[in-house]
Amino acid sequence: MEEVPLRINSDERDFEMDECDFLLQPDHDVTISSTRYRSTKQWPLCTCASFCGCCHWFWRRCCRPRELRSRTIVVGNPSTEKFPANVIRNQKYNFVTFLPLVLFQQFKFFLNLYFLIMATSQFIPDIRIGYLYTYWGPLTFVLTVTICREAVDDFRRHQRDKEVNSQKYRRLTKCRDEFVPSSKLRVGDMVIVEKDQRVPADLVLLRTTERSGACFVRTDQLDGETDWKLRLAVPATQKLDSDNQLFDIKATLFVEKPQRDIHSFIGTFTRHDGHGSEDALDVENTLWANCVVASGSALGVVVYTGSETRSVMNNSQPRSKVGLLDMEINQLTKVLFGAVIGLALVMMCLKGFGGPWYRYMFRFILLFSYIIPISLRVNLDMGKAFYSWSIQRDKEIPGTVVRSTTIPEELGRISYLLSDKTGTLTQNEMVFKKLHLGTVSYGTETFDEVSSNLKAAYSQPLPSVKSVEAGGGSKSASPLGPSGLASGSAKVRRSEVTRVQEAVKAVALCHNVTPVYEEDSHAPGIVNTDLDSPSSIESQTEADQHYSQHKQKNCLYQASSPDEVALVKWTEQVGLALVRRDLVSMQLRTPSGQLLTYSILQIFPFTSETKRMGIIVKENHSGEITFYLKGADVVMSGIVQYNDWLEEECGNMAREGLRTLVVAKKALSEEQYLDFEARYNAARMSVSDRVARVAAVIESLEREMELLCVTGVEDRLQDRVRPTLELLRNAGIKIWMLTGDKLETATCIAKSSRLVSRTQGLHIFKSVVTRTDAHLELNTFRKKQDCALVISGDSLEVCLQYYQHEFLELACSCPAVVCCRCSPTQKAEVVRLIQRHTGKRTAAVGDGGNDVSMIQAADAGIGIAGREGLQASLAADFSISQFSHLARLLLVHGRHSYKRSASLSQFVIHRGLIISTMQAVFSSVFYFSSVPLYQGFLMVGYATLYTMFPVFSLVLDKDVSGKIALTYPELYKELSKGRSLSFKTFFMWVLISIYQGGVIMYGALVLFEDEFIHIVAISFTALILTELIMVALTVRTWHYIMVLAELLSLGLYILSLVVLKDSFDSNFIQTTDFLWKVLVITLVSCLPLYILKFLRKKFSPPSYSKLS
């Protein structure tokens, strides 16, 4: 069913013609019209062509992609333009398309189409060879199961859609507020979204319940990040006294055309009623659909609805995944179809082509159609469902969820595993480990020295603090001891104290963290942020009262990055704590209990392009303005003043596995700041090329900054990552790590996690930008032996552009590859390139929204439900709770699923081949007559009641236990070669089927005496016993359910011998003649195979049997 999107895409592709193609249609019609006038005989053809042309034009007009355009919205007036309805629709079908599409998807498969043709032919009396139910029964059963499954799945999707679309929201109107379902919202409507309520459409935030206009949102269902994001209301509307005044003002919103990028937005808010104000809008003024308001309530105006919202535009249709085993079986069924046609032709050649030979030919095809068993698809689908159920029930890997039940066998064929780093191999739990000031370094053991230096610095009276902050610390009175101290010693000591103080203060101020206070146990579940109650804060007469208000409460920090939280927690630990933060100010508590208040003048948030974040603050007591900046060493090295230690120390920290940030500052005068503010505001107001202009203004400040310190934060490894990676490597799986992190950190994690083993070298691919550079670097790498590769995303792009085949040849031969600075699209492209180049099966594992494209591109996508939310987990085929569960998922469940499905499919094919062989022998003996050997119920019962349970019980079989599979991971290497189901094993089963079918049929013909019904009794009984014995010979590990299945089937058959008097002679089956003849035939058909199996096990045992 999952191929529906592909079908739609191909249709759309057909209709995606350019303008000139579209304009050709009228000329074509004119040509047809003139031809019609010249030759009246051709009018039906012309009419038909014209009608088709009109239909084609009409279809294109209705179904062409909607043009996306920017819009201007009048505040307080819903838009009269036509925009998409604000509905979420995840259904695959509607009432009209359900049956046609489901049947189309089913009969796309060769197996089902073949049986449809066979079953339909039975309506023709001349070629009917039995009862209709013998063909239509199994086919109807398969289709009914599929249709019911699809109907239930689609109905559930419809229910979920209906539930989401009918959620009520408060819409603000001139007369009164009204509650409307989200599906009724239109562009221009003003909506109030309450706390913990989902945002129904893309909004521009106009007002919040916080006086400052701030609002926190959770975006985990949009970008996979669990941290709260700060959003700001438009200042002009936040200042209004009430919500209803929005209808009194004359204002418009200009917003850009809908885009996919959730991290950018361009718009302007303009008032036309005398105030003349114009505010620039960016992503901080928006609430995207599917976000959840986390604090207060928000009032916004709808700007994009339905299919134009960011969340829907970012929903790429996952490709429908078909397992390698399914494709192999599809190939085998085509071979079997060839065998059916070949056998029918042979019979016709022997019979002669006299009379209505085509009728006899088709009857023979029908007689031998059991060679292709329709029950194969049913058995495999039921098997897959059982494997999925087993995986979810495994107590060794709790929390595992199988979201795609069609590909569990893929887990047993993986050759390449592509993994994210942060949150997948690591815990995404940051711990501050090191502070480096250039001449001195502080680690976890010496952080108490940082605390004592801070205490010393802040124990001075406030004016002295001022002078230290201004950089004149040497002139202030020393708190370190009497003036009789040696002046040199005092100077050195004071210098270190000042530098520590400046560094810690910079770390405590340069961030986007907000403290959130949780009430004590008397009021559980109540969270109070400073933003939630600004009035209560401003009513305090002294800052100390504000602090005392919160000091009994548990303080949590909210930020968009766990790195920032780690830094602020560390500053609190050493004595300089962040106690309050709102949009315009923040407050720090010193070790001595003083409260320092800073006004926030500007914030420049971190982006993946700039790789840095900055803040301009003004110290309220002294009035000093300081610009603080922190970021990655690669960008900061060109911004800070010259030094000789930054690059070396950042490299050292990265080798220790630490994530580094460089912190710098710049003191600004009042005039400098006002000049910057004017230029910055002008750049923010520009509609065209706004991002570049704003960046240019900010960069004018980022020159010759004073380097303060380098911080090192550790991202801890997940539990049991090292042994898991070692197991997977020993299993023959090549592991690639694709991360957006810097090269040094990625390299360090690769070493510490044992992704690269101790005995292997590590080649770091130099940064290349030209074709020549790439050529030289590839030649250098070619000379390395057994060496892991580390390459950056930019260099990877260059190599793939010029030397794709050569690069992939080298990279795929590496034991491990680390790609750093990778974008989400690059990750998915790497997966697709490996699949195309090697033809091997790939698995991708990740935990964040940025891993979704990679997970969907891989043959088996595995998501980890981690700290970055559930987006990867929900998009994946398999969801696990931690990385270490991957070993058992692949080596145990992957192995068992593949081995069991291979045995099951071959046995079902054997079951069809053996009865077709018997039919061929029977027809050839009885003058090539196209008469069925077994009538009616016996044929249906053979594939169901009599053999179904033992054959399906093979899904419980296992060649080795889970413990042995994990102890000896080398066993997994054999699976990727696909030897369990190959043309070799298939033809072995064909030979077994021909031998057994021939023995049973000839034996029955030789040993029967007078009546045809005795042939049926002897041969059919021997056939059922042979099948039951063959299942027993195939089983490697017995389970009590297998024994019960064998006994149940035997019991049902014995019961049938008594009940079905039309098919069996009740007197004959009670004689000893019947018994000994059946036993002899069964023995001859099975004993040689048992002897061969015994000899093979004795002299050439498979590798797993040596360990069992």
From TrEMBL:
Family indicated by similarity? Belongs to the cation transport ATPase (P-type) (TC 3.A.3) family. Type IV subfamily.
**Domain annotation P-type ATPase N-terminal: ranges:** 80-136
Record Pfam families: E1-E2_ATPase, Hydrolase, PhoLip_ATPase_C, PhoLip_ATPase_N
Taxonomy of the source species: Eukaryota, Metazoa, Ecdysozoa, Arthropoda, Hexapoda
Q: Which residues form the P-type ATPase C-terminal domain?
A: 874-1101
Q: Where is the composition biased (Low complexity)?
A: 476-490
Q: Where is the active site?
A: 420
Q: Does the keyword Glycoprotein apply?
A: no
Q: Where does ATP bind?
A: 420-422, 564, 606, 630, 659, 739-741, 821, 827, 850-851
What are the names of the required cofactors?
Answer: Mg(2+)
Check the record and name the PANTHER family matching this protein: PHOSPHOLIPID-TRANSPORTING ATPASE, PROBABLE PHOSPHOLIPID-TRANSPORTING ATPASE
List the GO terms this entry assigns under cellular component, sorted alphabetically.
Answer: endosome; Golgi membrane; plasma membrane; trans-Golgi network
Could you tell me one molecular function GO term of this UniProt entry?
Answer: ATPase-coupled intramembrane lipid transporter activity
EC number assigned by the record: 7.6.2.1
Q: How does it sit in the membrane?
A: Multi-pass membrane protein
The name this protein goes by in its record: Phospholipid-transporting ATPase
Q: What chemistry does it catalyse, as a reaction equation?
A: ATP + H2O + phospholipidSide 1 = ADP + phosphate + phospholipidSide 2
Give binding positions for Mg(2+).
420, 422, 847, 851
BP GO annotations:
endocytosis; phospholipid translocation; retrograde vesicle-mediated transport, Golgi to endoplasmic reticulum
Q: What class of enzyme is it?
A: translocase
Q: Where in the cell is it found?
A: Golgi apparatus membrane; Golgi apparatus, trans-Golgi network membrane; Membrane
Reply yes or no: does the keyword Transport apply.
yes
Domain P-type ATPase A: start-end pairs: 178-310
Residue ranges for the region (Disordered) are 467-492
Task: Cite the entry's keywords alphabetically.
Answer: ATP-binding, Golgi apparatus, Lipid transport, Magnesium, Membrane, Metal-binding, Nucleotide-binding, Translocase, Transmembrane, Transmembrane helix, Transport
TM segment ranges: 95-117, 129-152, 335-354, 360-380, 908-928, 934-956, 986-1006, 1012-1033, 1040-1059, 1074-1092
